[in-house]
Amino acid sequence: MTLPSSDSNLLSTNDPGHTIEKASPTKKNDSTLSLAETARSSKKDEIDFLNAKLANPLAGLSHEQLMEDGKAFATRYGLEDLSELFKKGALVAKDPLAFEDLSLLTEEEKQALREEVSNKWKQPKMLYYLVILCSGKSSMDESVINGANLFFAPQFGIEPRGGTAEQNSRNQWILGLVNSAPYLCCAVLGCWLTGPLNRMFGRRGTIFITAFFSFITCIWQGVTNSWPHLFVARFILGLGIGPKSSTVPVYVAECAPPSIRGALVMMWQTWTAFGIMLGFVMDLAFFKVPNTTHITGLNWRLMLGSAGVPALFIVVQVFFVPESPRWLLSKGRYRDAYESLCSVRMHPIQAARDLYYMNVLLEAENEMQRHGSRFFELFTVPRNRRATLASFIVMFICGVNVIAYYSSEIFADAHFSQIQALLASFGFGAINFVFAFPAVYTIDTFGRRNLLLTTFPLMALFLLMTGFSFWIPESSQARLAMISLGIYLFGMAYSPGEGPVPFTYSAEAFPLYVRDIGMSLATATLWFFNFIIAITFPRLLGAFKPQGAFGWYAGWNMLGFLAVLLFVPETKALSLEELDQVFSVPTRVHAAYQVKALPRNIKKYIFRMNVPDVPPLYEHERAMQGMSTDAKTSMKTV
């Protein structure tokens, strides 16, 4: 790429004779920067330039130039019959909120643009159908195994309780391995197939393939005849779970309008919670199904097989929803991309605006293709490294998957009957689903970082409460009540906090040019931790007893709190430039600032004391602090 010659701080790596004009901050024997320092400075400036250009490539263009470009775009890509529409779309794309002053727009078009702001949830039914359909088959597989554990483990000779200490230890590891198999596959293989599958088959094609894998392997699980056989079937299931978990949030983001993009992407987590709840429903529905003459364990086989039914609905219906317009643009299918956008927008002017701007961004990204490894730049470029660290932390172990996978075992250890254990597990699933809804509002008002800092200590407290309740005498009804209450309170804290934040945070923390590879790494991290939890918990439960096992995960939650406090910046409602500024603050500076601010925040927000504000860390915060109260109110209203 060629960098603007007008910026004296930018150095083209193709021009070794060009030196940076900015003076070195320290005195050196040599008046010029060393070659290594020059290269580092050049790389940083180049990345800053990339992100600034991607922030708004239309900035600085006149109305006449925009209209000419819009018409040329329509002519170039076989949309001549829509030339006038794309002239308008290009004008609106530069500043979507300044449309009232554009005389070229009709009153009908202006009204459609007004309603984007005044009634942002008024969207075509196709958009909501797309979101619900693609997010629906999320985590039913995670909870049906919960009830099935009670039955296939003794049938396959891996009962984790009742044998000798050596037998119990062996069986606990095997049970954990069988349960964790899909997440092992996701971490080491499934998530890394996302890119190739999306490039070859598109978003819909990838979702179709992964849903088909999920359907086939769920049925396969139901006809297995040994634990190694079940392990293989569940491992292959990861090929359905991994790429889909990375593709659906991206697909929804590419189809959703900006005003509700965050909330719609979050539907993935909401319907994940619904899938977990539905899995518990299936466990209850098939609990009393008896064996037949030729089939032993028909109940658990139906439980595992039932998780394939939602996947079958997706397989049948996914091609009734439009393909991602951005993917269609990348394949040169501009007419199809326009029609796709028309099906998920209320008016053609919105579709023309969004298609034109998508194309501008795509051209800017293609122009800025880099020669280095984008994966390694996640760690070698300081701004990217901080985003990678923060995304890694928000995918942290919190303990919820212990309950999603093993709540029936936990309740059985508390001396619930099998049916009581499943009913209590369903209660957790229902709470997890219901309390996911508040996050649609709080994630964009309270903030990602604040949600984590608030809920991690609460989750630790409720895990301790659950574990300590196992010391209540078995004969007491209070034992059952307190164990259930601790788990339910944990679900209430998790669902609006650590539940929705990871995918949302990871999708916005990375710069655009490494966002896809960054998201794949973050998703693989999530599934790797799921694998660790699933494989270790049965043995942890046997070795540490419930009190120690829950205490162990409570400790990890407190470590998570400290990691978020020190290393995870807030990303709520920040522009690309502001995100670059946030992640450009050195890690040690951010950590030191947060340690200094913590006592003041505890006094202010917990003890409600009147304490002086700590000076802001970021430039945009200083600008907000300097604004008048009326201006802040006006900005929040807009």
Write a concise synopsis of the structure shown.
The chain is mostly helical.
CA-CA gap between termini: 38 Å
Q: What's the number of extended β-strand segments?
A: 0
Class derived from helix and strand content:
mainly alpha
Helix content: over 70%
Q: Main β-sheet: number of strands, strand sense, barrel status? A: none
Q: Outline, from the CA principal axes? A: globular
Could you give me the name of the CATH homologous superfamily of the largest domain?
MFS general substrate transporter like domains
Percentage beta strand: under 5%
Rg value: 27 Å
Number of domain units: 3
Report the CATH C-level class of the largest domain.
Mainly Alpha
CATH architect. name of the largest domain: Up-down Bundle
Report on this model:
The chain is an all-alpha fold and 638 residues long. The chain folds into 3 domains: 1-55; 125-321 and 370-577, Growth Hormone, Chain: A; 585-637, no CATH class. It is 71% helix and 0% strand. It is globular, with a radius of gyration of 27 Å. Residues 1-37 are annotated as: Disordered.
